[in-house]
Amino acid sequence: MKHSREDIIEGGIQLFRVHGYQGTGIQQILQSLDIPKGSFYNYFKSKEEFVIEAVSLYGKNGLQKNKEILRNRSVSPLNRILKQLEQVQKVYIAESFEKSCLLDILAIEISGINKKVARIVNKVFEERKVIYAKCIKEGQEQGEIRVDEKAQDLAEFLLTGYSGAQLKAKTEKSIRPMKVFVKQYVNYIER
After folding, report:
1. CA-based, 20 to 30 A from 52: which of 62, 160, 184, 190?
2. Which residue from 134, 189, 123 is spatially nearest to 162, judged by alpha carbons?
3. Measured distance CA(35)–CA(107) in Å, rounded
4. How far, CA to CA in Å, does 83 sit from each of 15, 92, 93, 114, 144?
């Protein structure tokens, strides 16, 4: 069966989300997609290059989904944020808490030892922060979100706090930690 470059990356993303970077080898990727080693190396020189491409694609796809929700002006800014966070909860439930956010996994597992991967993971986090900050700024301008804190800081607080809640949710196999974080975040930012 012939697989495109993007098919191989998508397959790898799913394996990384379950087994992590260290727990996912090239051989495992090849077997899961039923492709020969040459097909992989035709597209990627190394596992490091592959994971960088995986983060780029994962980030691009995630950012597009975020934009669809966070730029929907028919919904108030705070409700857009809540809707986006609820979408994440639905994904965790649908995947039975077996998979994690690729960015969180890589940030924990290899960012400290691989500067190239750390840079791309941070770049994707920063892109997400920008889209959330724009929505938060809009909420501030509409009087819905407190104005005594910078929108960028509230966005960073949201992303870092929610990442921690996602990790805890995975260990508990429950969305409770995410719901607790969302409730406290809303209490903090709501005007």
Report:
1. 160
2. 189
3. 28
4. 27, 15, 15, 34, 16
What is the 8-class DSSP label of residue 88? H
The span from the CA of 124 to the CA of 39, in Å, is 27
Beta-carbon contacts of residue 171 (< 8 Å; ≥ 6 apart): none
> What are 95-106's pLDDT values in tens digits?
999 999 999 999
Q: How many CA atoms lie within 13 A of 181 on its CB side?
A: 24
Reading the block at residue 25, the tokens are 């080898």
Calpha distance 2→33 (Å, rounded): 9
- For residue 8, give the nearest of 20, 23, 38 by alpha carbon: 38
Going by C-alpha positions, the residue among 175, 79, 86, 91 that lies closest to residue 135 is 79
What amino acid is encoded at 97 in this protein? Answer: F
Alpha carbon distance 68, 59 (integer Å):
14
The band of 1, judged by pLDDT with boundaries at 50, 70 and 90, is: low
**Residue spans per domain, the chain:** 54-189
Q: Could you identify the residue written with the tokens 């992989």?
A: 40
Taking only Cα atoms into account, the Rg of the chain, rounded to an integer number of angstroms, comes to 18
Cβ atoms 134, 73 nearer than 8 A = no
In sequence order, what E strands does 5-141 have? none
The reported pLDDT for the residue numbered 2 is 67
Question: Do 3 and 32 contact (CB within 8 A), yes or no?
Answer: no
